[in-house]
Amino acid sequence: MKSTWPLLMKNDNVTLNAPIFRRASVKILHILSQIPSATGSGIYLQATMQHAHQRGHSNYLLAGVPADFHYDDHCSHLPCDTPELIRFGHDVNLEIVGMSDVMPYPSTRFCDLSAEDLGCYEACFDERLQQAVKRWQPDIIHSHHLWLLTSLARQRFPDVPMVASCHGSDLRQFHSCCHLQQQVLRGCQQVDAVCALNQGQRQQITEDYQIPAEKIHVVGAGFNDSLFHPPPPVLKDGNTIHIVYVGKLSRAKGVPWLLKALQQVAGEDWHFHLVGDSSGEEKEEIVRLAQTLGGKITRHGSLRPEDLAEQLKASHLFILPSFFEGVPLVVLEALACGCRAITTNLPGIREVFDRLNCDWLQRIELPRMASIDSPHPDGEQQFIAQLAEKITLQLAAIRSDRTAQPPLTVQEVLHHYDWNSTFCRIEQVYDKVLSGKQTATAAISS
């Protein structure tokens, strides 16, 4: 059956119908200012590297990690030369500076950095960037986040073709750290191309960063369909309905309100799985709320992708009540594993699922917001009540058929967001940037 699902966006330069990237092996330097795992951008980077390797390209990596990070324990599967790692707590006297204010590991916030801290941070990355480029002589740099490291790399290496991926957390930082905006813009406005997750994000980048729309390509996000796929029906055929949340334990993800909603959900046949981690006061608040559910909750902490896939395959209902996201990969992963889903009606969710005419995925409108990722107190109780209502409706549907499979329309959406399709779009951006640089060089030479 031919899918009638629309391409990722209209009027963009990159579509699935574009010519497939056939350039000879390209040397790609991937740069990320934090751990290349554990978060959405880390998983995105890993998948990009793996698919680049499958296509015959050479990968190199520069990333920020804690001083005690054991690369082989977390990233030995990555197809790349020996990475260049900045070790926070050793190379620079800070805990790792996270792109989100709440990270699944000890971290520092950009808004808390002094001018001296910021200078040390940039000086360390600058030195290691120069070493990496001299060592590997990349054909192209693929940087993650429209933030300080991307700006620094563009200014330091203006002649190396450069693509930057926006992940959403960079847009939040842009608004919460206004004092850093000019520093960010100096380099980010000069990148050759930007990969955006959705059309709404593309528009926001154009408005906030003043980057021309023709340089911003909606490539979406992808999930690993070899890992996240439907389980045998028997795995979901039991007496207990398993509900799961996956993500950082933070207020921005809506976790406290989800736990309060679950307190209002009747029935003794469900069990809630809280998957993810963080640190600080927000985690402490969430742990206290989780304890009110007694024996109806299991806290798992962070899970390896393989273990997460098994948890999703054994679950019936996935919930993501987040207040700010791009295209949440974990929603795609949960749907691929046969879970029903409840999410907030974020722009990225609307763009991907707006034509999904079934109740498999239920959406809740965002409450009135006090800031970009924090709800106004006046709307909190209504938001909790709506969550509880949607959970109750989904539980009723699951009780009627615990082994039901997602409808065809859900499967069509998933087809467009597996990593093979996503990386084809990223490759096309690489090709466009490299071809443009070659054309410009030829024109100068003549």
Topology of this structure?
Elements: E1 27-32, H1 40-54, E2 58-66, H2 71-75, E3 84-88, H3 115-136, E4 140-144, H4 148-156, E5 162-165, H5 169-176, H6 181-188, E6 193-196, H7 199-209, E7 216-218, E8 241-246, H8 255-262, E9 270-275, H9 281-291, E10 297-301, H10 305-313, E11 317-320, H11 329-336, E12 340-344, H12 347-353, E13 361-364, E14 369-371, E15 374-375, H13 380-400, H14 408-416, H15 419-445
Parallel strand pairs: 1-2, 1-4, 2-3, 4-5, 5-6, 6-7, 8-9, 8-11, 9-10, 11-12, 12-13
Antiparallel strand pairs: 14-15
Helix pairs in contact: 1-15, 3-4, 4-6, 8-9, 8-13
In words, what does this structure look like?
It is a single chain. The protein is α/β, with parallel strands linked by helices and 446 residues long. The chain folds into two domains: 27-222 and 419-445, Rossmann fold; 233-416, Glycogen Phosphorylase B (Rossmann fold, 3-Layer(aba) Sandwich), CATH 3.40.50. Helices cover 40% and strands 16% of the residues. The chain is built from 15 helices and 15 strands. The protein has helices at 40-54, 71-75, 115-136, 148-156, 169-176, 181-188, 199-209, 255-262, 281-291, 305-313, 329-336, 347-353, 380-400, 408-416, 419-445, and strands at 27-32, 58-66, 84-88, 140-144, 162-165, 193-196, 216-218, 241-246, 270-275, 297-301, 317-320, 340-344, 361-364, 369-371, 374-375. The strands form three sheets. The chain has a seven-stranded parallel beta sheet, with helices on both faces. β8 (241-246), α8 and β9 (270-275) form a beta-alpha-beta unit. α3 crosses α4. It is globular. The model is unreliable at 1-21 (pLDDT under 50).
